Amino acid sequence: MGRRPARCYRYCKNKPYPKSRFNRGVPDPKLRIYDLGRKKAHVDDFPLCIHLVSNEYEQLSAEALEAGRICANKYIVKNSGKDSFHLRVRVHPFHVIRINKMLSCAGADRLQTGMRHAFGKPAGLVARVNIGQIIFSVRSRDQNKATVIEALRRCKYKFPGRQKIVISNKWGFTSMTRPEYLEARTQGKLMPDGCYVKTAPSKGKLEDYFESVRRTGR
Questions:
Q1: pLDDT for 145-181, tens place per residue?
Q2: For residue 65, which of 39, 38, 95 has the smallest C-alpha distance?
Q3: N or C: which end of the chain has fewer CB within 10 A?
Q4: H/E segment holding residue 147
Q5: Could you tell me where the beta strands, DSSP code E, fall in the chain?
Q6: What is the C-alpha separation between 107 and 122, in angstroms, rounded?
């Protein structure tokens, strides 16, 4: 028996039903990779940040998220190179969907239980997304802006409902706007922290201050 169409599980009807010790036998999600491209790139390398934002309260299947991830990745790699971006999947398929299997072959009428014991068995995983929630985020260089927008536009076709493409005013995946980031960088207040940055503390113990000065090179 194949998968049901995703339209059967599109709407958020029930409470979240995650995998747990009460909910066993859940199949693995199709989506396994959440970071693609040059994920170890320094925070200074990729100032541009573009998001794919959900415009509906719905459920996105792990299969749809995987298809969208592959679509966006292929387009950017083909047009601007595999080291020109960092794509991150921002939603996780935790919600387990169920199916009440019915036999549909000839002579199955006496085996079917109908609505008796209708609580189904785990069939797959979906991510519950809200209005305004980010699905994918891509950081890249400014010259790749059109390529990233087109990649996210194409992967919109893999999802039900409506999505928006939003160009962020932040520097990469950090929480600082571009003018704030550039000002803090010139003042030597930033400490690199993977894809993000930390601000060097101006309060606290003296030894912590000297350590932050040593790390930032002020």
A1: 999 999 999 999 999 999 999 999 999 999 999 999 9
A2: 95
A3: N
A4: helix 145-155
A5: 35-37, 48-54, 58-61, 85-89, 95-99, 121-129, 134-140, 163-167, 190-193, 196-199
A6: 26
